[in-house]
Design brief:
The complex is a heterodimer of chains A (212) and B (192). Chain A is 39% helix and 21% strand. Chain A is α+β, with helices and mostly antiparallel strands. Chain A has two domains: 3-30; 48-208, Glutaredoxin, CATH 3.40.30. Chain B has 192 residues and is an all-alpha fold. Chain B has helices at residues 6-22, 24-27, 31-52, 56-61, 69-81, 85-93, 95-116, 121-144, 158-185. The longest helix of chain B has 28 residues, at 158-185. Chain B is globular and about 50 Å long. The chains are: A alpha+beta (212), B mainly alpha (192).
């Protein structure tokens, strides 16, 4: 090979490597942020809910996979910790709004809400119950829970692709989203935490297509 | 760089890289330090290492790097890649990606440094100006965007990271302009 051809070959190699690297990190040019990549991933390949043991605000035991067996209902899920002063309040406001909107439309039995805490050390059932009361949650529709065993926390965060880092001030910095568990019991969608309206519109649009 | 003592030319870049490695926890604590100090630091180290060796690396690569084009292309692609927020996240969360970041940025600096003197002024202008607009534009996006870009950094750090990128874009453009001004002062090369 002449130097000219070798250089053309190495330039092509660089282009191929670069395209591969960009496609890899953006999961096929789907998004440039981790949240965007997660949203695309979940929509493309809905995730099965594993049998993670949870404990709710009433101290009752349940499994995350129970949400895979709800008859004809979807569940909007958010992950929070109760002491959070920032993005979790947006999550809570979004779920409150969803509660009000779905009840006003008579959909309380087909749209469920679930708030999961990733801070089981602080968010005991009593703390969660107090939090639910403050938010005016209708506990028939909206449930609050955390992992029963702290050792299950990594699996929970991995399932939802939530990154939680101690912020050095006793709290956490973390990313958030509003997740949709479909009627088939799989994690189907992730929405921006401040756009519950889009999440509800998306649900109503797909629900209208069904008979009954 | 060729006038520096041999000791510094041989060991300097290695020691500086070790220093960066030790400072990693501090550097990666905030988005601005990660994007504004660590990433450019790795690139500049590679660049200096290439220049420490005189023209030897340029000559060794010459037959695969005509006009410095593949080398400059590689450096631009690597610089662009680490401006993707998802890439920055993965470099903090996964050790393999963290290692890939160090290797790719040092290699980008090495290749850019080795290609700089091989490239024709017009080719250099193409790459430098493209890199300048890319970095300035990405910096502006980081400053302006209301969404959280990285999972591992809070949104309020994005402003500083974006400003650091815009600063580097300006500094890079300035260095290149100084280089152009200097070569304009040189006697013109004989034309055919």
């Amino acid at each position: 090979m002449t130097p000219g051809r070798r250089s053309v070959a190495s330039a092509f190699l660089v282009v191929a490597l670069a395209l591969g690297a960009f496609a890899g990190i953006t999961h096929g040019f789907a998004a440039v942020t981790s949240d965007g990549v997660r949203r695309a991933d979940i929509a493309r390949a809905p995730r099965v809910l594993p049998d993670l043991r949870l404990i709710d605000a009433d101290g009752r035991s349940l499994s995350l996979s129970d949400y895979g067996n709800l008859p004809a209902a979807v569940t909007f899920v958010s992950l929070v910790y109760v002491r959070c002063q920032s993005v979790c309040q947006t999550s809570a406001a979004g779920q409150s709004w969803l509660q009000a909107e779905t009840q006003a439309r008579g959909l309380a039995s087909s749209v469920r809400l679930l708030t999961l805490s990733f801070d089981p050390a602080n968010d005991t059932p009593q703390v969660l119950a107090e939090h639910a009361r403050r938010l005016g949650a209708d506990t028939d529709q909206w449930r609050f829970a955390t992992v029963r065993y702290a050792s299950d926390l990594p699996s929970l965060l991995k399932l939802f692709d939530v990154v939680v880092l101690p912020d050095g001030l006793g709290g956490y910095s973390h990313n958030a989203a509003l997740f949709l568990v479909g009627e088939d019991g799989r994690l189907r969608r992730a929405y921006d935490v401040d756009r519950p309206d889009l999440a509800l519109a998306d649900y109503l649009r797909t629900a209208q297509g069904r008979p009954g | 760089m060729n006038h520096a003592p041999a000791f510094i030319r041989i060991y300097g870049p290695g020691f500086a890289l070790a220093g960066l490695a030790m400072a990693r926890p501090w550097l990666e604590l905030t988005m601005a330090r990660h994007m504004g100090l660590e990433l450019p630091g790795l690139f500049v180290l590679g660049w200096i290492a290439a220049r420490c060796d005189g023209d030897r690396l340029t000559q060794a690569l010459a037959s695969w790097n005509a006009n410095g084009l593949p080398g400059l292309l590689f450096a631009t692609c690597v610089a662009g890649f680490w401006m993707v927020p998802a890439a920055l996240d993965s470099a903090v969360l996964h050790n393999g990606m963290a290692m890939g970041k160090v290797v790719s940025l040092v290699a980008a600096g090495l290749l850019a440094g080795a290609s700089w003197s091989a490239a024709a002024p017009a080719l250099l202008a193409f790459f430098v100006l493209n890199w300048f607009w890319m970095t300035l534009g990405a910096g502006l996006l980081y400053v302006e965007t209301p969404q959280q870009l990285c999972s591992v950094y809070l949104p309020d750090q994005q402003v500083h990271a974006g400003q650091a990128m815009m600063l580097w874009a300006t500094v890079g453009l300035g260095v290149w302009l100084a280089h152009v001004a200097q070569s304009c002062g040189d006697p013109p090369e004989p034309s055919s």
